[in-house]
Amino acid sequence: MNKGEMTRQRIIEEAAPIFNQRGFVGCSMQDVMEATGLEKGGIYRHFESKEELAAEAFKFAIGEAFRVRRQGADAIENRLERIKYLVRRFVDVPSPVPGGCPMMNAAIDSDDGNPVLRGLAKEAIADWKKRLSVLVREGIERGEIREGTDPRRISNVVVAALEGALMISRLERNRTAVQDAAVVLEGILDGIAV
Amino acid sequence: MNKGEMTRQRIIEEAAPIFNQRGFVGCSMQDVMEATGLEKGGIYRHFESKEELAAEAFKFAIGEAFRVRRQGADAIENRLERIKYLVRRFVDVPSPVPGGCPMMNAAIDSDDGNPVLRGLAKEAIADWKKRLSVLVREGIERGEIREGTDPRRISNVVVAALEGALMISRLERNRTAVQDAAVVLEGILDGIAV
User: Fold this and answer.
1) Cα–Cα distance measured from residue A181 to residue B69, given in angstroms and rounded to the nearest whole number
2) Between A111, A164, A176, which is nearest B100 by CB?
3) What gap in Å lies between CA A9 and CA A3, rounded to an integer?
4) Which domains does chain A have, with CATH numbers?
5) B91–chain A Cβ distance below 8 A for any pair
6) CA angle, A50 as apex, A47 and A56 as ends, to 5°?
7) Residue B20 burial by CB count (10 A; 0-12/13-18/19+): exposed, middle or buried?
8) What is the C-alpha separation between A26 and B154, in angstroms, rounded?
9) CB contact under 8 A, B164 and A168
């Protein structure tokens, strides 16, 4: 990275928690200027608009969340065990960028207006569900997951239960809901084992 | 209701979809003035602050969502069947105030600042979970639900799966995720039947 690219990356990383905590409307360029110590012109040299910076900040936040939670997963050969490990990681390892799950934030925040952010949140959820579906399909092929299991339904329920539980846990400020979701999801996953 | 109370109620009902769609920061008093056709002074005659109006708008939106989805539930004596009916209603009957689930919106929107709205969202989720827990406990007493079933875990998972699925459905703009959640929840509920 050259100096310009490094500055751009630093702005993204410093803006990410502000956008993730306050939302697109609630995060002003003034906030980003204060966090980075840069003038407005210094920021707009690297981004065409607030929209572009918000999109990059979201991509960084979601990338970090996936990265830390996937750590160690590929070492687990059995696909059903790998899915269970990913569920457990989601519960045990918080999203590293402050402000909660970037996908949920972007989904709600972008619902009215901001089609770029909405598109990115939609892509992120499609990506997550696809990864889970592939694991289910591979598990069936490898004889680890019962034939006839619906990959789409399993992915939808894993993502829904975890994200919904996260919402409850955010409100209650404790881990009970995500722990409960993990226990029930483990039961569901044990139910599709061969 | 006298004329003042009627105007107050009308402002709440007309502000509710704007707050629910755009969030607290994204809904300006200008928006409320346009929706109601009232001057700023005419609105502030009925509410001390934007915060108070937002709180009343949230209470109205969540009240409507609970009301339409609970319709017909009390006629079902069997508590497990009643829970299954409530799950089905949640999937089939959209929240009547535009902008999606008010609880999810308030939970995310109020996460940074706005403690009043946060408190109301927390109360709403506690209320929903308590109603479900009571049904599980009564079902156990009536011999319809298996002894040893954990009411808290069942409530957490029903609420989490439905809310999380709603988030996916909002992004995907189809009903697949909530339908999938309902099917899996029915399986879980059948699993605790006596």
Assistant:
1) 23
2) A111
3) 10
4) 3-190 (1.10.357.10)
5) no
6) 65
7) buried
8) 35
9) no
Cα-only R_g, chain B: 19
What ipTM was estimated for this complex? 0.92
> What letter does residue A74 receive in the DSSP assignment?
G
Residue in B100, B160, B170 closest to A168 by CB: B160
How close A171 comes to chain B (CA, Å)? 6
What per-residue confidence (pLDDT) applies to B36? 96
Predicted pLDDT of residue B135: 98
Give the count of alpha carbons within 13 A of A46, CB side only. Answer: 24
Distance CA B23, CA B179 (A): 27
Tokens of A187: 């039961």
CA A19 and chain centroid, separation:
14
| CA atoms in the 13 A half-sphere facing the CB of A54 | 28
Q: Coil, strand, or helix at residue B47? A: coil
* Contact assessment for residue A109 and residue B108, using Cβ atoms and an 8 Å cutoff: yes
- Show Cβ contacts of residue B131 under 8 Å, excluding neighbours closer than 6 positions: none
Distance between CA atoms of residues B20 and B15, nearest Å? 9
| Residue B171 to residue A26, Cβ atoms within 8 A | no
Residue B101: phi and psi, rounded to 5, are -65, 120
pLDDT beneath 70, residues of chain B: 112
Q: How far is A187 from chain B (nearest CA, A)?
A: 9
- Residue A87 CB contacts under 8 Å (≥ 6 apart), including other chains: A158, A162, A182, A185, A186, A189
* Binned average pLDDT, 10 residues per bin, chain A of 194 residues: 94 96 90 96 95 96 96 98 98 93 87 83 96 98 98 98 95 95 97 96
The reply to whether B6 touches chain A by the CB within 8 Å rule is no
